[in-house]
Design goal:
Length: 305
């Protein structure tokens, strides 16, 4: 019997194997009640539901929605920390009552969105056939196209972090004070320039745009540092689910994705993924200033332009 015939048979016993991927990380799940091993891959049981892909001529052609527990690792990428990686999902199927047919790829695509609601999260998957028609994420922007510590940026996150104990948890609980946070920023900044001593203005916003991680692996974006003029205090986008005074947290440096910050803060401007030297005046669409052949924008290298 063919695989398609087995799929529609009332005697079919389908098992699904789902591979979730983000960058170099992979997670393997199955709807089986027990652990399944295929070659070097081990699929762990996961209670999930999904819709069937419907193929038509509309914009939702072939899309699938997954409802999964919100505590699986890949959902963390979509809670508060932006990722420049595209997450993908592959569904494979096999039938216990006809193992000779082997494992077949049923559906493959990428994450279009993730919505978390309490204990569950909904993943909208877009098939690979739709991905080819999408506009690439890489754009001609003055700001860097990469997210900090991800592919393209190439900085190692372990070199730009500080771990300290929580001294106070404010009201709201998204505001916390971390012991030694200012000194930690000064030590990291000194890797690039000894001028960034403790008390330097550049340290006031050192953690802005970064993120904070607790011992449970929860991550929260930092959108304010030096809160109320206290260098050791940060404000996160939302509070941790579980955090207490004296708990350790790890705080990662932030980046505003400008080339100036890339150079001064990380000495990484050669890998800056933006285009800040594009002229601010387009001669094809805008009249140039009288007597000018170009815009006033200077080039990046001193003494040129």
């Amino acid at each position: 019997m063919t695989f398609d015939a087995t799929e529609t048979s009332k005697f079919s016993q389908p098992i699904e194997y789902i591979t979730l991927k983000n960058g170099s990380e992979n997670w393997y799940y199955t709807n089986s009640s027990k652990q399944e091993v295929i070659g070097a891959r081990t699929f762990e049981p996961l209670a999930y539901t999904r819709t069937e892909p419907v193929f038509s001529k509309d914009s939702a052609d072939g899309q699938i929605k997954f409802t999964v527990p919100s505590n699986i690792p890949i959902i963390q990428f979509y809670e508060t920390i932006p990722s420049s990686q595209t997450s993908s999902v592959t569904i494979e199927r096999v039938h216990r009552n006809d193992p000779d047919l082997g494992v077949q790829v049923f559906w493959k695509g990428a994450f279009a969105s993730v919505q978390r609601e309490g204990l569950f999260a909904t993943i909208l998957g877009v098939p690979v056939t739709q991905l080819a028609a999408q506009i690439p994420r890489y754009t001609y922007s003055a700001l860097c196209n990469w997210f900090l510590f991800q592919d393209g940026c190439e900085l190692t996150r372990e070199q730009w972090r500080y771990t300290g104990n929580v001294l106070t948890i404010g009201t709201p609980a998204s505001i916390i004070t971390v012991d030694g946070l200012e000194s930690g920023a000064a030590a990291l900044a000194a890797q690039v320039s000894p001028l960034y001593a403790e008390g330097s203005p550049i340290l006031n916003n050192y953690w802005l745009g970064g993120y904070c991680e607790n011992s449970a692996g929860e991550k929260r974006s930092i959108y304010e540092s030096n809160v109320d003029g206290v260098p050791n205090r940060i404000r996160m986008l939302q509070p941790f689910r579980s955090l207490a005074v004296n708990d350790p947290v790890t705080v990662y440096a932030g980046c505003d994705r400008t080339r100036e910050t890339c150079a001064a803060k990380f000495n990484n401007n050669l890998r800056h993924g933006g285009f800040p030297d594009i002229p601010s005046i387009n001669p094809f669409t805008t009249e140039l200033p009288v007597g000018k052949a170009s815009s006033e924008k200077k080039t990046w290298f001193k003494g040129i332009g």
